[in-house]
Amino acid sequence: MKLLDQVNVKIKFLRYSDETAKVYRYWIKQYILFNQKRHPAEMGKIEIEQFLTYLATHRKVSATTQNQAFNAILFLYHKVLDISLENENINALRAKQRIHLPTVLSPREVKHLLDQFNDNIYKLITQTIYGCGLRISEVMNLRIKDLDFDYNRIIIWDSKSISDRSLPMPQQLIKPYQDLINKNKQIHEADLSQGYGSVELPNALKRKYPNADREFKWQYLFQMNKVSKDPKSGVIRRHHVLKSTYSRNLNKAVKKSGIHKKITAHTLRHSYATHLLQAGIDIRTIQDLMGHKSLETTMIYTHVVKELSEKNRFSPLDYL
Prior knowledge:
The protein is mainly alpha-helical. It is about 50% helix and about 5% strand. It has 14 helices and five strands. It has helices spanning about 5-15, 20-35, 45-55, 65-80, 105-115, 120-130, 135-140, 175-195, 205-210, 245-255, 265-280, 285-290, 295-300, 300-310, and strands at about 145-150, 155, 165-170, 230, 235. Strands 1-2-3 form a three-stranded antiparallel sheet, with no helix packed on it. Strands 4-5 form a two-stranded antiparallel ribbon. α1 (about 5-15) packs antiparallel against α2 (about 20-35), α6 packs across α11 and α11 crosses α14. The radius of gyration is 23 Å and the shape is flat.
């Protein structure tokens, strides 16, 4: 089996996201091409350091991109080739780490943005992203079974940090969720009667529960209006709302709002974390709610809150 095929098999086995898989494949291929297509098993510390230094000095990549490349290479050696680099002490010239303060909306701006949507599925998706601080992929992959109304919580399975987490369900969304589920139930029954009604499942679950894909609890919460052919399997089924479709509707609402900030779905996630911190929620709790593997990632919001503090917003010009 070719090396990149081995990479693909291991990625699927570990159930990495499609985006992570794409990034890892790209950097592994770049690493091999940089070293004149030598097999990675014949290389090690020196070649890795040279490649990472090249990225920083010649390609001028950011620290985040360089770390992506390094993580892809570590994945190749540790997970695919079963070669440990633990004691190699790899010291490449590191790209400069630039601290980006994320764009954050005020609570008033969030409300104003939400008011630009009709009472449709895209508004509910937006409320869910902000109300739970979710990544767009996490929202789109929500299934009926992930909403626990008895305990008022939403369960996020196999998130980016490869750890499950539980989030409080926004009280004002309980009724809209229930209405949507009832609507989805009717649609699902109609799909079944027409010979459809299956939904995409992770490979391991599909093998373990071969009939689960037709059960209602496994259906997506935010589903498309029409069935379509799955490009992977060729099966005609009802998929979740596409990220591109949601982004298009979000952009329309942003334009209508007149808010002159760069706003994406992730802006709402940033706003969620910032508003929790401003409300006095401790940083460790926010780390858990956000699903951050490292506390350092969450700490960026302390810089945001500090920058937004009233006592920091002054100019000597105003005292002349």
